[in-house]
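Input record (one chain):
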Amino acid sequence: MKGTAVGEVVVVIGAGSIGQAVARRVSAGKHVLLADLRLENADAAAGVLSDAGFETSTTSVDVSKRESVLALVKMATNLGDVTGLIHAAGVSPSQASPESILHVDLYGTALVLEEFGRIIATGGSGVVIASQSGHRLHALSPEEDKALATTPVEDLLSLAMLQPDQVTDPLIAYQLSKRGNVLRVMAEAVKWGRRGARVNAISPGIIITPLARDELTGPRGEGYREMLSRSPAGRAGTPDEVATVGALLMGPDGGFITGSDFLMDGGVTASYFYGELAPK
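The corresponding structure, as predicted from the sequence alone:
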């Protein structure tokens, strides 16, 4: 459905398992615009949601390019009032180089928050899918935290702390990006609030998705499997469990929550600091 206003619109960026699960919980009676780097992924997700009774549109988007995000914003606003944003796009340490991770996961998220923050409807809400990894990065200085949170988007990747000679490990790039996502959500919540809208982050642990399966069978797979077995929950999570938190944050029961981050990792981070996973 294109070119005709349809009322309220929920935009899902990253049409994978988590984005779909959250959308199913918060999009009844609304139009769902699914955007993904690969249009075929968005189309496949739209087929599943359409079969479940949702009205959908699809498009491709590259969150690392401003013109692509602006095109998505234009399409969304042409459809109706954007009352929901679910940002679940990203790449993992086993999938990309440090440079690519910083471009997609850090810069791309900051860009999405900025551009959708300009048009989000009064009463609207958004959620960014970050990661437990951001919670296990070493403490940054107050100046570094502020830089990740507030540096103008186009200057973000020029920060000294993010240069190739400083970030050589994809995992560190991922951790920095996810810490940056949480800090950025906090800063952007102030701006979204001026429009009467809210935005929060969720930092999941290992959630069983195709991306997680890549990690579990990738070069760091043994470590991730040990992480799960030695965590308090003793298992991975499911997209539906993330969606439960997403529905709270985006719905009326979460009306007093904005600029926050919810860590849901089965206790992995707790165990990393105070349990069996603590570094020796």
